[in-house]
Amino acid sequence: MSKISVIGAGSVGATVANDLMLQGVASEIVLVDINRKKAIGEALDIYQAAPFVSPAIVRPGEYADVAGSDIVVITCGVARRPGMSRLDLAQTNVNILKDVAKNVVPVAPNAIYVIVSNPVDILTYVFTKVSGLPERQIMGSGTILDTSRLQSELARRFCISPKNVHAHVYGEHGDSSFVPWSLVHIANNHIDAYKDSSPDKDRIHWDNDYEEVEQFVKKSGAMIIENKGATFYAVAMSVCHICKAIFADAGTAMTVSTMMHGEYGIDDVCISTLHLVDRSGVRGRIMNKLTPEENEKLKLSADKLKAVIAQIEL
User: pLDDT by residue (tens digit) across 128-164?
Assistant: First the structure.
């Protein structure tokens, strides 16, 4: 038996719950929302697809029903609106998260907590500070979504499966994120060497377009929000990927956001670098060697987040 509770039944939370059931990730999924009717409706709608997929219970619940959860996914908060940066959301969603932590942690002290609400790095930091839980039990979804956007775009440009693209986004889930291009490989070739090795060299359009790709990754969320009002499909899949990695227990490399303790010269801020995730939560950070320029970009991203943390009320 495996149990996942999702706090927040909005577009992201409901889509997470739906994807968890469709993929057979958990045998019990609990949806909790301040709007009880919304949670009831979403849970019923999702559960009525159960005959077509792996058996699972999907039900609405209160905070007390989170007890016994293996994983708690937190998606609640004010949504990002057109023209609004993730950091604009900070204080309002900090207050919401603190209330959630006060109610959920006492009933599920052994769960792995996955923070998804934005600004995710700030909220992961706040949850780490106020929850009292071991840090290995806490991770923000961080740049998992950014990384997926990067991998899918590079796969399109290089005419190859995204599974053969090994590239990650580091830093803040936001404007100061960056790609450590020194670590990017495609089918065991560094990205700058792959075109000459590929049978598709005549189809590949790549001329060291680093900045163009990074800007596409950074602007994708705003582009989607401008066109359809919200992002939820890809982020929900990224959260399911995290949950599956936790249950798989093999140690999956992913760019979740966790507290820094001097790594890369950065301390007391949550930010995304590559980690191993398994049944214990965050097994540890993979200390890939960055170039001096990449290390500086990571520090600048951390400083941007620290400036926001200095302005919020914990």
Answer: 999 999 999 999 999 999 999 999 999 999 999 999 9
* pTM, entire model: 0.95
How many whole angstroms from its chain centre is CA 257? 8
pLDDT digits (tens, 9 = 90+) for 267-283: 999 999 999 999 999 99
Q: Is residue 168 annotated as a catalytic residue, yes or no?
A: no
User: pLDDT by residue (tens digit) across 199-225?
Assistant: 999 999 888 899 999 999 999 988 998
**Residue 125, both tokens:** 């930091």
Q: Contact 277/247 with Cβ under 8 angstroms? A: no
From 168, 173, 241, 275, the catalytic residue? 173
Tell me how far apart the alpha carbons of residues 6 and 31 are, in angstroms, rounded to a whole number. Answer: 5
